[in-house]
Amino acid sequence: MTNTSTSSARLCWENNNNFNAVEQKTAEISVPVAVTVFPGEIYRAPRSWTERSYPKLTYFHEVNKGGHFAAWEQPQLYAEELRAAFRPLREQL
Q1: From CA 62, how far away is CA 6, in angstroms rounded?
Q2: Engineering a disulfide at 59: which of 19, 34, 83, 89 sits with its beta carbon 3.0 to 4.6 angstroms away?
Q3: Which CA distances in Å does 24 have to 9, 37, 41, 69, 91?
Q4: What does 26-93 look like in DSSP terms, one character per residue?
Q5: Phi and psi (nearest 5°) for 67?
Q6: Distance separating alpha carbons of residues 8 and 47, to the nearest angstrom
Q7: Closest to 81 (Cα-Cα) out of 36, 46, 31, 37
Q8: pLDDT below 50 — which residues of the chain?
Q9: What per-residue confidence (pLDDT) applies to 54?
Q10: Are 25 and 51 in contact (CB under 8 A)?
């Protein structure tokens, strides 16, 4: 363990599980945004909310495996999603 559980728990407590886009200031994000929704995640953002919240959304995909620690649980799937998310950006270069 990396002794970070306390700071992680505090972050959740301070945010009170608030996923309000206005308070999170997602509209101010000026870089391209990619979202993959994993079925075991704590919060699974619907596409409609994601599109309204992130004006620079370039990639959205829902997968059938994985959870909150998707990179650890499903490394192959996570890597595939990461590549797919960046593919449109590479094509623009």
Answers
A1: 30
A2: 34
A3: 18, 18, 19, 22, 30
A4: GGG--S-EEEEE-TBSSS---HHHHHHH-TTEEEEEE-SS-BTTHHHH-HHHHHHHHHHHHHHHHHH-
A5: -145, -145
A6: 26
A7: 36
A8: none
A9: 92
A10: no
Residue 79 phi/psi, 5-degree rounding, is -65, -40
pLDDT digits (tens, 9 = 90+) for 55-79: 999 999 999 999 989 999 999 999 9
3-state secondary structure (DSSP) of residue 2: coil
* Residues with Cβ within 8 Å of residue 69, at least 6 apart in sequence: none
The answer to whether 53 and 21 are in contact (CB under 8 A) is yes
Q: Indicate the residue type of 85.
A: A
Report the candidate in 61, 60, 57 with the shortest Cα–Cα distance to residue 29: 57
